[in-house]
Amino acid sequence: MEQAGGLIAPDDLRRSIDHWLTDGVITPEQAAVMREDVMQEDVTATADQMTESVTPATEPEPELAAPELAAPAHPEHRTSLLIEALGYLGGVIILTAFILVLSQFWEEFTAPIRLATIGAAFVLLLAAGFVVPQSLGGPGTRLRSVLWFGATIAWAGVVGFAGNEYLDLVDEQLVLLTAGVAIPVAAVLWLLHRQPLQHLALFASIVAVAGSGAAMLPEPSAIIAPDAKIGAMVWGVSVAWFLLAWGGIVKPRGLGFALGSIVAVFAAMTTMGGELESQSRPGAVLLLITLAALVIAAVLFRDFMLLVIAAVGSLQGMPIVMSVFFPGVLWAAFALLVIGAALIAAAIVIARSRRRERAVSHRNWSVGSQPAAITSAGLVLVGTAAAVVTTSLIA
């Protein structure tokens, strides 16, 4: 392979494959197939170069043949994707029909039959994920991920129905029980199958536990907004998740960055829910710190995704922040102008650093050490929980 003509050098492609495998973007089986393809193309290119080197110089050059259209690459791959898509479509149709039929008789079922029905769905989805053949490769991996994601939802349904029907739990108590019991199942399935849907299920369960647990605390005093305790606790969990992804403990790393940063930004916005200016100021400060940290991380990590999240968060939250500290339309417009310029500057810095990445050896700040990630995530969680509990108990 040559770098000219839009192709990638084999060494660069091998490093990219290793990076994708480390981040969990591809499976080990997919990485092995890609490495084999790279090796075959590299051997073919080397053989062509050797043939050209032994060809006599006096031999006339053959006439250039008219360019032919390249044959479609990996037609069997496209066929497998089509089969997979048809399978998912058929599964959705069957599920829809099952729900329609079940809804006709649901009111006639007794509580034990309803609970058994939801439990049967959980068992079937879980077992189906286990029996998916490993030989299917990528399609099998994705199918197992979908089945086990559905199993996690079904398990939450079992716990939620039992809690409401037999324990008379509602609202925050029911959410706390449901999400809390769902966490072990989601964690085990994520450990067995570290795919994006399992990652999402585990993160959502933890966030639900944090938010519902904070909601059960006493109402805070006038220092902070009434709903700020929920937003602050969810913010702490999201930042801790971001840090764990930075240390490579939760994978895929990119998905951990995205989930942690998005939820942290919007959780910080909810802490500004007070009607009084004095109640909104702590939340406004938290949002400013979150957005600034996100922009710094985007520049250090050379990650445009984080910069986009920071930009969207700034557009949503900064006018409110400026109205808290500096009432008036002009101040809000000035704040947006400054933030827009800062984001453009950050984008330029990221683009330039990416160009120099191959020529100069840079430290990869997006990959942290596990001890540092665990320590920092623990400190964030403990500090946030202590602050939420303390402010909730202030008379």
TrEMBL record:
Enumerate the transmembrane spans.
85-106, 112-133, 145-162, 174-192, 199-218, 230-247, 254-272, 284-301, 306-325, 331-351, 372-394
The protein's UniProt keywords, in alphabetical order, are: Membrane, Transmembrane, Transmembrane helix
Keyword Membrane: yes or no? yes
Q: Where is this region: Disordered?
A: 50-70
Q: Does the keyword Transmembrane helix apply?
A: yes
Q: Where is the composition biased (Low complexity)?
A: 55-70
Report the protein name in the record.
Answer: Unannotated protein
